[in-house]
Specification:
The chain has about 250 residues and is of the alpha/beta class. Helices cover about 25% and strands about 30% of the residues. The chain has helices spanning about 25-40, 70-80, 85-95, 165-170, 230-245; strands at about 15-25, 45, 100-105, 110-115, 120-125, 130-135, 145-150, 150-155, 155, 160, 175-185, 195-200, 205, 210, 215-220. A hairpin with a 2-residue loop joins β7 (about 145-150) and β8. α1 (about 25-40) packs parallel to α5 (about 230-245).
Length: about 250
Amino acid sequence: MFTPRLPPRSQPQPGHRYDVAVIGAGLGGCELAWRLANGGQDVLLVSQALDHLGNLYQPDVADVTFAAGSLFEQVKAQITPQTDGWAFHRRLKAELEGTAGIHLLQSCVTEINETGDAVELSTWEGPTLHAGAVVLAVGAFLKGRLLIGETLEEAGRLSEVAYDFLADDLAAHGIYLTYASAEATSVDDAPSYEVKFQILAPGELDGFQIRRLDHGYALGRCTPGEHTYASVLEDAAKLAAELLDGSP
């Protein structure tokens, strides 16, 4: 476990430059931001809805195995009973809010542009965000289309809207996107559904780095391959170590 960062959380003003901006606050994004912040980085963690931080595909965590040493494993150990997904979510959010070095922002990123040694993120709301590097951890939200019964929604999970503008911007950068799909089975009162979404094609990545972006990385379900909760958390730890190793 990382030693908590000693300085107080920064209070960024317009034009503030973060060390790393993480787009997407699901499994991989939350874990990566937590590890980077505890490693001394000033991290922006962007979510379309702060109430959705760390959301999983099922409403409980009874049978979920998280990677050893991860934030998610630690949070699960703190809740009683350990099947309560809502208690898990609340505790996870509290841990992230209490981690110095993480700035949580509810916003929708629409464009990524590199300017020399920095990255500019345009948002649907208007403000431009600045960082030394950007990480896509958007899961199933790049043009996600969710099918539940006979209803089709523009979403990556139930009631969570898709990143259509961001997918279009990546394509405009010449980044080739392909498709993947996932299913969520019915649990208790939550209905089952299928979601189809875009991911970066295998040739667009060199490890975690996006080949066509000098300061861009990708993590988790928006990348090719088979992913589990444990593997995404392990990859977040690897990417955090890579970024921290390259930090000044």
